[in-house]
Model the fold of this input.
Amino acid sequence: MSVAAKICGLNNAASVRTAVSGGARFVGFVFYPPSPRAVTPDQVRALAALVPPEVKKVGLFVDADDATIATAVAAAKLDMLQLHGDETPARVMELKRRTGLAAMKVLKIGEAADLDAASSYRGSADWLMFDARPPKGMIGALPGGNAVTFDWTLLASRNWPMPWMLAGGLDAANLARAVTLSGARTVDVSSGVETAPGKKDPAKIRAFLASAAAL
Done:
C-alpha cells in the first residue's frame, strides 16, 4: 500500500497541476502572510479550480481570526483546516462548528514530551500533524516549512485516536527512511520540493510523489 502524500504551500498553477497529476491525495494552500508560500483568496480561487474532487484541499492557518478563515474557505472551497498556531482544543471545535470542515491540529515536535499534547485534542481534531520544532535561535523560522526534521523514532509504535501526518524536512531522498522509522502512512512536504522558499519544483514534486507511491 502506497503512502498518501500532501503537497503543501502550492502557489501557482504549474505546481498544482503537477501535484494532482502525480497522485497527491491532499494539496495545501497557505493563508499566513509572513510565509513566502502564502496565497490570497483571489489567487487561491483560480488554483483551487484545478483540483479535482478526489483530492482534498487543505488551508493552512496560524491563529487566524474567524473572518480570515471564512474568506479563505469560501474562495478555495476547502475540505480541511490545518491549524498551525497555538489553537486550543476549544478553538479547534469552534472552527469546526463555524466552517463545517474537518480540522487538523499541528504539533511541533522536538522531544518526546512534545507528543503529550496530542491527547488533549482527542475529540476535537480530526487529524494530527507532527512537524519539527525549529531549533532555538533559528533566524527567520516559520510555523512550518523550515526544512528541519526531528527524531522520527519518537512516533514509532505509538497509537493515536485519529489519523495523522508526518511533516518536517521530508524530501524524496529521506522519505523511505522517515516512513520506516515513524510508521507514518500519510506525509506532508513543502520545502523538500522547492528550489527556494516558496518556489516549487515540478521535478521534485514528481519525485516525492513517486517515492511515496513506491512505499
